[in-house]
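lol forgot to send this yesterday, sorry. struct tokens for the thing we talked abt
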């Protein structure tokens, strides 16, 4: 279980064009440090015994906060760690806000996981997105954190201003080269009251379509999986604020975006199973029970796509617990 604390925009001296931390996190402001311990107690009261429990500080640039503010947040949590009730702390921050002295503060309070919002490894894309750091900053910080034994996560975004398919896929490749412990993938959305809204309204920015975003994230997911790097999140966590009409003005928003990406990978696997140009009148495919809804696709879109492509009279995609996760098996094909 992760106990999340959102510190929207706290510590950040920048304004990335896409950023509206309030709408993204659904949180109105940073919590007071005095509320940290009671909130943890509340979460722990509902935890299953034996659960591994982490505390996470998301949504801002944690290491850019004043050191005494960082300590005010971390000190209450470290008491739970010393008592064996919390296993570790994770924070998220910018790649250009991690210093040697900042690292020693994190280590003193037993932070072990650092997530870096790298977003792109293309300096032109970073510049046009208002990030205020370079790809070299990300590489240097990953090396520094790695040498200090931190578990490192990297967040990247598809569809940033100036990004193209090639630059995004190069970002994926360079991120693989940094060997993070895990990755998060986010498609860029146009959220109200951000600089990106102005760029979009002026015609200077065109968001990805949902199909393009799914396809780019599909390619990224496959590449990270091939490299053995877990992708722990694809697409923003849907919040009430994000779902409110008028919050997301444009872009590939879908509350189950990650499932769309996984479903498109299943579609490709089933297409390969049925064979390009092959003739079938009916087919029966099985998948692991936990993969069934993803394999079927949203509103059975994969079933309809395969039936049309292969002119199938009937197609059944069914669950079989003997099929390994993320695999597909062709049982009968006529
Ligand atoms: S670094 Fe960018 S995305 Fe992160 S909090 Fe600052 S403005 Fe928002």
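and heres what i got for the seq, position by position
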């Amino acid at each position: 279980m992760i106990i999340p604390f959102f510190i929207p925009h706290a510590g950040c001296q920048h304004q990335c064009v896409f950023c509206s931390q309030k709408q993204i996190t659904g949180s109105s402001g940073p919590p007071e440090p005095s509320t940290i311990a009671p909130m943890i107690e509340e979460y722990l009261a509902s935890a299953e015994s034996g659960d591994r429990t982490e505390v996470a500080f998301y949504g801002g640039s944690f290491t850019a906060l004043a050191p005494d503010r960082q300590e005010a947040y971390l000190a209450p949590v470290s008491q739970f760690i010393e008592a064996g009730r919390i296993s570790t702390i994770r924070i998220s921050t910018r790649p250009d806000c991690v210093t040697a002295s900042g690292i020693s503060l994190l280590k003193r309070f037993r932070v072990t996981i650092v997530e870096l919002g790298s977003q792109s490894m293309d300096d032109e894309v970073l510049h046009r997105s208002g990030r205020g750091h370079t790809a070299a900053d990300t590489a240097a910080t990953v090396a520094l954190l790695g040498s200090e034994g931190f578990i490192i996560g990297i967040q990247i975004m598809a569809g940033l201003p100036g990004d193209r398919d090639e630059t995004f896929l190069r970002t994926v490749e360079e991120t693989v080269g940094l060997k993070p412990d895990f990755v998060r993938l986010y498609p860029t959305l146009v959220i109200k009251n951000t600089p990106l809204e102005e760029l979009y309204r002026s015609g200077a920015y065109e968001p990805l379509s949902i199909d393009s975003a799914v396809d780019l994230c599909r390619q990224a997911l496959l590449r990270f999986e091939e490299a053995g790097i877990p992708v722990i999140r694809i697409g923003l966590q849907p919040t009430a604020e994000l779902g409110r009409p008028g919050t997301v003005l444009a872009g590939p928003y879908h509350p189950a975006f990650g499932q769309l990406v996984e479903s498109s990978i299943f579609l490709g696997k089933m297409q390969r199973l049925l064979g390009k140009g092959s003739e079938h009148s009916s087919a029966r495919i099985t998948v692991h029970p936990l993969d069934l809804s993803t394999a079927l696709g949203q509103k059975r879109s994969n079933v309809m796509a395969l039936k049309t492509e292969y002119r199938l009279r009937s197609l059944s995609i069914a669950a079989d617990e003997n099929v390994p996760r993320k695999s597909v098996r062709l049982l009968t094909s006529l």
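Residues 7 and 31 are 7 Å apart (CA to CA). anyway ping me if u want another try
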